[in-house]
Amino acid sequence: MTQPKQFRASKGTRDILPPDSALWNWFEQTAREVFGTYGFGDIRTPIFEETQLFARSIGTDTDVVSKEMFTFQDPLAPEELVRKVVERGFDATKVHVAGGQAPKAIWDALSEFEWLTLRPEATASVCRAYIEHGMHVLPGNVKLYYVGPMFRRERPQKGRYRQFYQIGAEVLGQSDAPAIDAELLEMLMVFFKRVGLTRTTLYVNSIGDKNCRPQYVELLRHELLQVKDQLGPDSRRRIETNPLRVLDSKLPHEQAIIAKLPRISDHLCAECREHFARLKDELKLRGIAYEENWRLVRGLDYYTRTTFELIAEGLGSQNAVCGGGRYDGLIELLAGPPTKGIGFAIGSDRAILSIRESGDLPRLPGLDVFVAWMGLSTYAAAVAIARKLRESGVSVELPGEEMKFKKSLNLADKLGARYALIIGSDEVASGTFTLKRLADADQKKLSEYELLEYLESEKRGTRG
Ligand code: AMP
């Protein structure tokens, strides 16, 4: 008989296992706490949306939409298909209901509705939800954050995956005051400090708005056409499709050419120039260090004015740990009311990689107590105390089968338990427990009350 196939996680995806997952939980929980202090609420949007939502908001000429989306057709149930066909004015008798087969013309007519995509980012979904739920009537700015997986069909490498995780935040409302941008950046820096990611550089730029950017893009296109022959194929293609993206190029031989191109900062309209100047003043007011980078245009179409990116040291080529910016026209583009917006997305995979490489890891909760019970007569006491300890938040491992004492302590050690709780017939007879600290074999006899008190207070960090 042939061996059955062994399965592995798909290309560019991976499992996050304990104890690693504890680091992830801590990272995400810290974000929730920090963002909560700035008045942000959690939003959970679907993992997939209509393909058109992403195409329209991110832009069809971007890498994300043109090459990287995981898109699939919704397999319609036959009766659903018939309903949709009739709704669209087709003759339902043309659909072979039994097989769910429809003539190609009908499928083509429906395809606009039936294509779905695993979300490559979440700003589009948040904006869709903002419009769908009429959130523009809510008082003040609407501040939302999300935590979850995103999907892009990329070539996997260190720090670049096909399923990766982002923590993002968005501020939507009527105001585009630079203070909103600055406060969002402050929150980001407070979070990065809390998780110990301090070897980072914040880059900021303004890419203008619909009044001044088109002229700049034309000027850039004109200048790029002059040097077209010296550019690589990607940049050459982008002269037509998206000239701003040429500024993103990492090709060594293009750097000197790009350095001589006109800079957006010299071509902003008065309003955009003022907005950017005030943003920089606000950042100074808040003591946030930043560098200006006129080449920071970001890859997605919906950005206006403020753009920013956070780069972490020591991550190699995939070193951007957060990116974001303003997207004042996006809600309208998605048929919503005139609304201003700004947001960012942190790449958790890379941020956690960077924290790990810095070696500055937090002390995360592990196994507190391994119950070493000996003799069947002690088992009931072991089950009872394990339950009580767990109820007071202590993490406990209770073997379900009797073990030799030595083997028990050995396993406790290997599992990384901090204590072994020894329960033998003596302990049961006297109503006490022996608590042994595994790091130094220090041992004490405690009553149930003392034991609970001791471990609980230690959990609260009041004892060594
Ligand atoms: P973007 O909006 O594309 O700049 O994405 C925001 C952040 O998400 C980036 O700065 C990265 O940290 C992270 N990110 C984007 N794509 C990937 C990927 N394929 N794998 C891991 N992280 C990613």
Please explain how this structure is put together.
It is a single chain. The chain is of the alpha+beta class and 464 residues long. It has 3 domains: 28-43 and 123-212 and 268-358, Bira Bifunctional Protein, Domain 2 (BirA Bifunctional Protein, domain 2), CATH 3.30.930.10; 48-118, no CATH class; 369-460, Anticodon-binding domain (Rossmann fold, 3-Layer(aba) Sandwich), CATH 3.40.50.800. 39% of the residues lie in helices and 19% in strands. The chain has 17 helices and 16 strands. It has helices at residues 20-37, 51-58, 63-67, 78-87, 104-114, 123-132, 178-194, 213-226, 233-241, 252-259, 270-285, 330-333, 348-358, 379-391, 405-414, 425-430, 448-459, and strands at 41-42, 48-50, 71-73, 115-118, 142-151, 163-173, 200-206, 291-292, 304-312, 320-326, 340-347, 369-373, 396-397, 419-423, 432-437, 443-447. α1 runs antiparallel to α7 (178-194). Bound molecules: adenosine monophosphate. Residues 121, 152, 154, 159-161, 164, 166, 299, 320-323, 345, 347, 349-350 line the site of adenosine monophosphate.
Output the radius of gyration. 29 Å
Oligomeric composition of the shown chains:
single chain
- Can you summarize the main beta sheet? 8 strands, mixed
Number of contiguous helices: 17
What is the CATH superfamily classification of the largest domain? Answer: Bira Bifunctional Protein, Domain 2
| Order of neighbouring strands in the sheet with most strands | 1-5-6-11-10-9-7-8
Instruction: Indicate the structural class.
Output: alpha+beta
- Beta-strand segment tally: 16
Instruction: Categorize the overall geometry.
Output: globular
Helix content: 25-40%
Examine the secondary-structure arrangement and name the CATH architecture of the largest domain. Answer: 2-Layer Sandwich
First CA to last CA: what distance?
A: 59 Å
In the predicted model, the low-confidence regions spanning at least 5 consecutive residues are: none
Proportion of residues in β-strands: 15-25%
Total domain modules: 3
What's the level 1 CATH class of the largest domain? Alpha Beta
> What's the CATH topology name of the largest domain?
BirA Bifunctional Protein, domain 2
Integer average pLDDT:
92
Bound molecules: adenosine monophosphate
